[in-house]
Design brief:
Order of helices and strands: HEEEHEHHEHEEEEEHEHHEHHHEE
Distance between the termini: 24 Å
Oligomer: single chain
Structural class: alpha/beta
CATH superfamily of the largest domain: Ribonuclease Z/Hydroxyacylglutathione hydrolase-like
CATH topology of the largest domain: Metallo-beta-lactamase, Chain A
Number of helices: 11
Largest sheet: 6 strands, mixed
CATH architecture of the largest domain: 4-Layer Sandwich
Radius of gyration: 19 Å
Helix content: 25-40%
Length: 339
């Protein structure tokens, strides 16, 4: 893809993705020059793909997080657009952590640009061995194309991307090996899934990962002690009311600490909505068999709920319908949002 005209790339993506491409560019344009330095561009994505953070400089353009594998054509189109890097090179691809919605486009980007891929130190062994359970891939019915690790980023070190110095800070919880990146000059935080405007990424119950919730609280404490003006989250728009976001995150953590079954139920509901976004729709009649086939639902059901697959499906779908996260349509189940 050599042209930097968005219209030249519409043929390789769906009409819906073309709309998302225009939306992502528009939202990015509105953010640049107001909240963010001119060389930092955020392509705001959705809940299937993480946001893409582009840092431009004459010394080399750097992209943080690559989205989900099904959206790789859209990610490449965003990069090649006028608001991206056009025909320019990409010097490096960085991941905050290695869940499928953040690293699913890595292989496609590496193939297109030939750039090295830099990962948090703790993620590198899992990627090298392609541990589909630890990476929440096959274990959770998620996908990514395999890629190689070229560089590691160690917590505590600093990197210069986009002519800005970024400190890599350990942010365990949602992913026990995750990093966030903090720029003290402009008081910017690239938070991945450690902090969103309304919460954070799913966390393993203490029965399965005893350190996950304590680590989540410790990460929130660490973030609360930073002087942050703008948070650039893994999902959702960048935001400035950091205190309110942290307050919501702490309250969620307290609720989770009081009820392990709530943590498990929340995780399964989020994973099911993600699957619906990926697959577009699922037959309602097939859902019990699906929940009994995919290991994470089967394992959680055995440990926390002890329900038949049909009753587990009824529980999850009922709660998701009440929150308008899913909808029924002629015997199919779809996500309540856009995929």
């Amino acid at each position: 893809m050599q042209s930097n005209d968005v219209s030249a790339h519409v043929g390789i993506i769906s009409c819906q993705q073309a709309r998302l491409l225009r939306t992502a560019q528009y939202r990015k344009a509105n953010l640049t020059g107001t909240l963010l330095p001119a060389q930092l561009h955020v392509f705001v994505r959705d809940w299937l793909s993480s946001n893409n953070i582009l840092l431009k400089s004459r010394d080399g353009n750097v992209l943080i997080d690559s989205g989900y594998v099904r959206h790789a054509p859209l990610t490449l189109a965003l990069l090649a657009s006028r608001q991206g890097i056009g025909d320019g090179p990409l010097a490096r691809l960085v991941n905050t952590h290695c869940h499928s919605d953040h690293m699913g486009g890595n292989a496609a980007i590496k193939s297109r640009y030939g750039c090295p891929i830099a990962l948090p130190e703790g993620e590198a062994p899992l990627i090298s061995s392609w541990d589909e359970k630890a990476l929440w891939l096959g274990y959770c019915d998620q996908r990514a194309d395999r890629f190689d690790v070229d560089e590691i980023i160690v917590p505590g070190e600093s990197r210069v991307w986009g002519d800005l110095e970024w400190r890599a800070l350990a942010a365990p919880g949602h992913d026990m090996r995750a990093l966030v990146f903090y720029n003290p000059e402009h008081r910017l935080l690239v938070s991945g899934d450690a902090l969103w405007e309304n919460g954070y990424g799913i966390v393993m119950p203490v029965e399965l990962e005893p350190s996950a919730l304590p680590a989540t609280r410790a990460t929130l404490d660490m973030l609360a002690n930073l002087d942050v003006r703008v948070v650039i989250p893994g999902h959702g728009d960048p935001f400035t009311d950091v205190s309110a976001a942290l307050d919501r995150a702490f309250r969620r953590t307290t609720a989770f600490e009081a009820d392990g079954k709530r943590v498990a139920r929340h995780m399964l509901k989020v994973l099911l909505v993600f699957a619906l976004l990926d697959k577009q729709r699922m037959r309602i009649a097939d859902l019990p068999r699906y929940l009994d086939t995919v290991a994470v639902y089967r394992d959680f059901n055995a440990l926390f709920f002890g329900l038949s697959p049909a009753d587990l499906a009824q529980l999850l779908v009922g709660e998701l319908e009440r929150s308008h996260a899913v909808r029924r349509e002629d015997g199919w189940l779809r996500s309540g949002g856009q995929g």
